[in-house]
Amino acid sequence: MAEAEIEEANPRAAKKPRVRPPQTFRHFKPETQGGGKAMVRLCQSDLIRGVVQVVKKGEGDNNLHMHTGMDTVWFVIRGRVKFYGENDVVMGEFGPGEGILMPRNNAYWFAAEGEEDLELLQVAAFDREVRNERVDLEDQRFEVGTAEYFDGRTG
C-alpha cells in the first residue's frame, strides 16, 4: 500500500509519532494543611494521567458529575470508598486492591468510608476527539479547585 493510501485510510498512521521521555514517580501520603482532599500528581501525557487522591471521610466527597471525554480507572490503595450513580444507587464499595472503571459520560460520585483516610489512584485516559468537560449534575459538596496538590514525579 502506498504512503498516500495509508494516510487516506488512517491519517494518524502516516504521521511521525512524537516521542516523549518516560516519567518516574512515587506515591506518598502528603502532610496536608487541612481541607478534605489532597492530590499527588504522578505522571501525565497527552492521553493519560495518574493522580492519587487522598480523601478525608466526609470532607472530600464529591458530587454527582460526569466527564465528557475521559475514562477513569479508580483503584484503592488504602482505606475504603463507595461509588454511587444517579439517584444515589450504589455502584460498589471497594477496599485496598479493588476498584472500578468509569467510562466517560457515566454519572457518578464517591465518598470515603471507614475511619482511615482514603488513598485512591485515579488513572484517566482522554479521548482526543472529544473535548473533556466536567459536567456537574448536583451542587458541589467539595469545591473542586480547593484541593492541595503535591508533586510525586521523581524524574
If you had to describe this structure to a student in words, what would you say it looks like?
The protein is mostly beta strands and 155 residues long. The chain has a single domain (36-150), classed as Sandwich (Jelly Rolls). It is 5% helix and 41% strand. It has one helix and eleven strands; from the N terminus they run αβββββββββββ. The protein has one helix spanning 3-9; strands at residues 37-44, 48-55, 65-67, 70-78, 80-84, 90-94, 99-102, 109-113, 118-126, 134-136, 148-151. The chain has a six-stranded mixed sheet, with no helix packed on it. It has a three-stranded antiparallel sheet with strand order 6-5-8, with no helix packed on it. Strands 3-10 form a two-stranded antiparallel sheet. Strand 1 (37-44) and strand 2 form a beta hairpin. The N and C termini lie far apart (41 Å). The model has no long low-confidence stretch (mean pLDDT 89).
How are the elements arranged and paired?
Blueprint: H1 3-9, E1 37-44, E2 48-55, E3 65-67, E4 70-78, E5 80-84, E6 90-94, E7 99-102, E8 109-113, E9 118-126, E10 134-136, E11 148-151
Parallel strand pairs: 1-11
Antiparallel strand pairs: 1-2, 2-9, 3-10, 4-7, 4-9, 5-6, 5-8
